[in-house]
Amino acid sequence: MFRLLGPVEFDAGGQTVVIGSVKQRTLLAVLLLRAGEPVRLEELIAELWGPAAPRSAIANLRTYVSVLRASAGEQRIVTTTHGYQFVVRAGELDAIVFADSVRDARAAVTAGDFEQADSLLTTALGLWRGAAAQDTEPRSWLAGMIAELEEQRLSAVSDYVDVKLALRQHVAVVPWLRDLVSQHPEHDRLCEQLRLAVSRCCA
């Protein structure tokens, strides 16, 4: 499994590989979020260094790719005409597993199967180990993608609360919701869900 929903890491040879260099973690995050499509060298350089890229940027980038290939597998990073492409299979990237589980949970809600939705959302949210790609140095594109992942997380959290309320498990979610609202006071849906859960506890 390649993991972006928290510190950037992956499994290889039955062990978790922790990437020591922040530039390598940032590179891997960009490649994983664009898995299956080629990423041009200039795009990668812009994400790693911004407008102040050193003259050695291309050489450094190739070194980072070599290090990642050595730990993740040579076949994982394909050299393309103008850059690199990362190869992942179904079920290997936590961000995709998360999105698929949330989609299936919403379908279960539509079908009225709240128990199944509860199980799927519990699994999906359990993939998060912290802020998305929290140990990278995100610039323009990566920063936007991280923000999008965090929005998807909050949306899934709200779905999860709706499911818990539908299952009449409002008492269990109140402490958790209070913590979330304190972190995201601008999130109207979470605030309204907290008010609803508290009112049901008092009824």
From TrEMBL:
Keyword Transcription (UniProt): yes
Report the superkingdom from the record. Bacteria
Instruction: Keywords in alphabetical order, please.
Output: DNA-binding, Transcription, Transcription regulation
Q: By its UniProt entry, which InterPro entries does this protein fall under?
A: AfsR-DnrI-RedD_regulator (IPR051677), BTAD (IPR005158), OmpR/PhoB-type_DNA-bd (IPR001867), Sig_transdc_resp-reg_C-effctor (IPR016032), TPR-like_helical_dom_sf (IPR011990), WH-like_DNA-bd_sf (IPR036388)
The question of whether Transcription is a record keyword is answered with yes
Per the record, DNA-binding region residues lie at 1-90
Gene Ontology molecular function terms on file? DNA binding
Q: Where is the OmpR/PhoB-type domain?
A: 1-90
Q: Which GO terms describe its biological process?
A: phosphorelay signal transduction system; regulation of DNA-templated transcription
Among PANTHER family, the record links this protein to:
TRANSCRIPTIONAL REGULATOR REDD, TRANSCRIPTIONAL REGULATOR REDD-RELATED
Q: Hey, which family's this protein in? A: Belongs to the AfsR/DnrI/RedD regulatory family.
What is the protein name given in its UniProt record?
Transcriptional regulator
Which species expresses this protein natively? Answer: Labedaea rhizosphaerae
